[in-house]
Specification:
15 helices, ten-stranded mixed β-sheet, six-stranded parallel β-sheet
Length: 399
Amino acid sequence: MIKVAILGYGTVGSGVFQIIKENNDIVNKKSGEEIDIKYVLDLREFPGDPCEDVLVHDYDVILNDPEVEVVIEVMGGLHPAYEFVKSALEAGKSVATSNKELVAKYGAELIDIAISHNRNFLFEAAVGGGIPIIRPINMHITADRIQEIAGIMNGTTNYILTKMEKEGADFDSTLKQAQDLGYAERNPEADIEGFDAVRKIAILTSLATEKTVNFEEIYTEGISEITSDDFKYAKAMDMTIKLIACSKMDGKRVTAFVAPMLLKEGHPLYPIQGVTNGILVRGNMVGDIAFIGSGAGKLPTASAVVSDVVDCVRHLNTSTTIQWSADKQELEDFSFSKKKFFVRTTASKDKVRDVFKDVDFVDGGVDGEIGFVTSVMSENDFKAKAGTLGIVSRIRLDD
């Protein structure tokens, strides 16, 4: 019998508890051992809850118990999660986590500690919720050089953009609806400003390059400036708007960003709606692979965590093959990145042609302005030209 401990009994933690208890026969069969939850750590009390008999409030009880083989960290945040996970690994316990902040900030260090103790630090749920993406990159797309990773990696923003597109609603009212439904936090900044997605693309890029990508160095732009008028133009172009997290690997050159993008009808991510997530991986041999499913939620995320627990139990004394060194992966200056831009402006067509030369005009039916699509140009070039024109907004086009 393998004893495990759950750190945190919030949404995901209670989901992990539920899955291990209700699907105990399946989990035990897959892991080859009987898995028993010995402890649940939380500061709160849960009278009448099934976890009550194993609830503890002192982490040292778990750390100092040699029977605990696997620690499940679902607390969120950096501290004390980092200190708890690090000490657990140093004590010879494997760790499964859904904490993207922790993995993005300290992933290389924690992987190294796990390897040095012949244990595992696994984090499938940290990126795609219920979508398997870490394990495929780490274990299945191993004969390829990964050339690009791109995806819709935040369900909150995708829900908001979908509602704005389908109902013509404004951003603020749609955000409030998302909050009322529990899809967005009371403080939604991490989602709507792209901070959640940038940590996820940093993790995936670190895995793909086997070096540490600093998420703070990735160009990040959220959706708070997107309006219902933008979707009028998108419809006129047979396009949609999605918040895309992307990294491109060209030899030693790596470019990464998070930003709203206009996608053509027919693009694999075009039909992804609501809280659903979708991630595309391009290998130089296998080509394009798509992973689509629930990117968040109690049970989908908890299911991914439990899959890591099963993997930890299967490899109790053997470290799996996650490769991610502390060496820093340098990123290309995003200002040199090239693409087309969709622009809204109050300037005349003659002025637009004078500044941007070859453009395609778009009639979105919005009074007092015009829209157009530029030719391919760098971020630097666009910024310089737009500064002489005066624009209402701009959105990049997926190339």
